[in-house]
Amino acid sequence: MSEKKNLRSLSKEDLQGVFRDWGEPNFRSDQVYDWIWAKGVKSIEEMRNIPKQIIARLDEIYFIRPIAFDNIQKSSDGTIKNAVLLRDGLIVESVLIPTDKRITACVSSQVGCSLNCAFCATAKLKRMRNLDPDEIYDQVLSIHNQGIQNFGRPLTNIVFMGMGEPLMNYQNVLTAIKKITEPEGLNFSPRRITLSTVGLPKMIKRLADDKVKFNLAVSLHSARDDIRSAVMPINDSAPIAELTESLDYWYKMTRRKITFEYVVWKGINDKAEDIKALVGLCKRIPSKVNLIEYNAIGDDRFQQADEKTIDAYQFALNQNGVSVNVRKSRGKDIDAACGQLANKSDIAISKEI
Fold this sequence. Notes:
The protein has helices at about 10-20, 25-35, 50-60, 135-150, 170-180, 200-210, 225-230, 240-255, 270-285, 305-320, and strands at about 5, 60-65, 70-75, 80-85, 90-100, 105, 110, 130, 155-160, 195, 215-220, 260-265, 285-290, 325. By secondary structure, it is an alpha/beta fold. The chain folds into two domains: about 5-65, DNA polymerase, domain 1 (Orthogonal Bundle); about 70-335, Alpha-Beta Barrel (TIM Barrel), CATH 3.20.20.70.
């Protein structure tokens, strides 16, 4: 007997082809698709309206192996961090972020990361593989259920700001978002999804060409090439001018503003010329700015800038008509805040499932 295949790796058309080959009516494939992507079943046996002989045949050839939460940590502010156990025993992390009006899922797209951003804990881990669409989908559905169980409220927002660079797992991420947003899936609004990237110009243009409906955020941290390259090596191959061109293309194609994520560090990007450069970029690209509180990862080179500097950034951006918000971190006491994921976890450990 050959090794079983992942049932959730089949497209809707693939499923239709399977049932056609079996001489079964087409509506059976629709039923199975509904069980998988709308109801989120954890096993083939849970599909209650499918005849037993079909269940047996599916089970002989295919598997459904959902993620599991290997460890759950709860912050004093309500944030919940999950160690997500994948089917091959590798671990990533996801985070539930509650506020008065929102339940946000912060999900991972890769095991580890290869981009070496100096201020990020995940960057210290070797990239081991991309997550499959069903593993991304499972994070979202699990946090939705976690929100109901812990706060009595459903998921309202999704951010691809966990471990990994989403645009380096392009097809799997877009497939997962399709399953999350389509009416036959979770029917979640794409307008409530934000994909965060370090800024890969070719892939940003591809997103625009693919006419995606979700939001785009760029982890910027400096609008000056020398400063950005020092903290984000990707800037050497994708400098500000090239990134700006791709973001200009994004806006022309989608008519949706970019969100720039921006941490201000003492002695790194806290000078007047840093503020001027960011304002100049925002005046060229329709955008808004999130000034994000820095979360320590044990590297003394990076220290949170003082409030006076943050105020100067806010004032300059507001004066030039740029929307700006200061984001206070959530879940810092459990290393669940931005840039901290996997800071105290060894994701290279493989566990037997």
